[in-house]
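Recall the central idea of this unit: under ordinary conditions, the amino acid sequence of a chain determines the structure it adopts. In this exercise we apply that idea directly, starting from the sequence alone.
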Amino acid sequence: MRRRAILSAARSLLAEVATDQVSLTALALRSGISKANVYRYFESREEVLLQVWVEEVRELTRRLEADLATVPTGDVDGVSDVIVAALEAQPKLSELTSIVSPGERRGRGLRRRRVARRPSARRGQGGARAPRTSRHAA
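Accordingly, the structure predicted from this sequence is:
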């Protein structure tokens, strides 16, 4: 229930301000939940925005599936109209997509969670580092 309230607050804020103006403090105030409790449900502002993006994409998918089912086969203009209408109905989706995009390299994009590294070739049994060998050994 609180998670839903935070996501609802995020959607509400996104309808009023730019994505970069949505802060955890604003989300906490809008949802009526303390900032500390927001962290119980989401690790960061970026995670909230990512979840909103996921919901937006699901909504877009549902809308497209339903509306495209009514377009006759081969009606390219009809397909185009359905896609444009669906995207226009979700104006923040493109903004959210731009910050979720892996092509975003300026530090403004969503940070991916760190993935555990595979053991390197230099690691021995039990994950301990094998001793380095000198290139300049005599």
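Confidence is low (pLDDT under 50) at residues 105-124.
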